[in-house]
Amino acid sequence: MQAPEISTLATLKVSYQQPDAKSRLTTLLHQTGFAVLTDHFISESLIAATYFEWQQFFNSEVKYLHTFDPAIQSGFFPFQTEQAKGNDKPDLKEFFHLYRKSDLPANFSLNSWELFQQMQSLAVELLNWIEAHTPRAIQQNLSMPLSEMVTNSPASLMRILHYPSIEFKSDPESESVPTGAIRAAAHEDINLITLLPAATASGLEILDRGVWREVPFDRGDIVINVGDMLQMASQGYFRSATHRVVNPPGEAANQSRYSMPMFLHSRPEVVLAGKVTAGAYLQERLSEIGLL
């Protein structure tokens, strides 16, 4: 019997501790592509300490010494480097890609690696939850169990994002924010699943049946969302929901926003569907958003 439809935003939260967490999370990801996980084992203090270090990094000129290498996609990506697929304006953000074999900037503690490892462990556990509560017909068409797809994957990464304060300038001769540009234009994630600890400011929205709605989550919560790779591997059973980060109104526009999504990617050789491998699909998508 098909599970009743869950309201996208009113009941989006799932406690890691509740008895039916596994089935409830899976149902939400099937119906909406999003869920918000509470009461998990990743500490707020670790998340806060990691944010603090990266805030210092983005507010210094040192970041330009770590500009990314397109061949390996690791390092610092300057402001307006990326634009969403199908969008003609760059996103109003800068970011750093941290992979398992990346080098942290000098004078960083091990907080980033600790958070990386904890989020990866949680993500693998959630992938096991998802597969266990996925219809057997979908399971049987997977090339391998979902958690095995990400085992030792060199493509999984933590992306540390900085959305600078927004200053619209009337002088056309000066550097300005392109008309209509926002912090992150509407897009779907590329990977299997994304784990996002609560950002330092609001702005994340989900497209809910044609209407943009703010995703409700509080300090300590983790947003979970489906990526295109899971949508493809599950033949569309799990939905890669469209989301964006909007520009803040009023005085809030003078404040930066930081977020740290963990993207769980399949190993490059994993077959997602038909003859499409995760590696080939990733290269195609990176080209579409201007990172290759």
- For the record, the CATH architecture stands as Sandwich
**How many strand segments?**
15
Proportion of beta-strand residues: 15-25%
Biggest pleated-sheet summary: 9 strands, mixed
Indicate the structural class: alpha+beta
Globally, the shape reads: globular
CATH class membership: Mainly Beta
Mean pLDDT: 91
* Fourth-tier CATH superfamily name: B-lactam Antibiotic, Isopenicillin N Synthase, Chain
User: How far do the termini sit from each other?
Assistant: 45 Å
Q: What is the CATH topology assignment?
A: Jelly Rolls
Radius of gyration: 19 Å
The total number of structural domains is: 1
What is the helix content? 25-40%
The secondary-structure element order is EHEHEEHHHEEEEEEHEEEEEH
| Low-pLDDT stretches | 1-7, 169-174
Number of helices in the DSSP assignment: 7
Summarize the structure.
The chain is α+β, with helices and mostly antiparallel strands. 25% of the residues lie in helices and 21% in strands. β14 (271-273) and β15 form a beta hairpin.
Describe this structure in words.
It is built from seven helices and 15 strands. It has helices at residues 21-31, 44-58, 111-132, 136-140, 146-149, 228-233, 278-288, and strands spanning 13-15, 34-38, 75-77, 94-99, 157-163, 184-187, 193-197, 204-208, 211-214, 222-226, 243-245, 257-259, 262-264, 271-273, 276-277. Strands 1, 2, 3, 4, 5, 7, 10, 12 and 13 form a nine-stranded mixed β-sheet that branches. A four-stranded antiparallel β-sheet has the order 6-11-8-9, with no helix packed on it. β8 and β9 form a beta hairpin. α2 packs across α3 (111-132). The protein is globular.
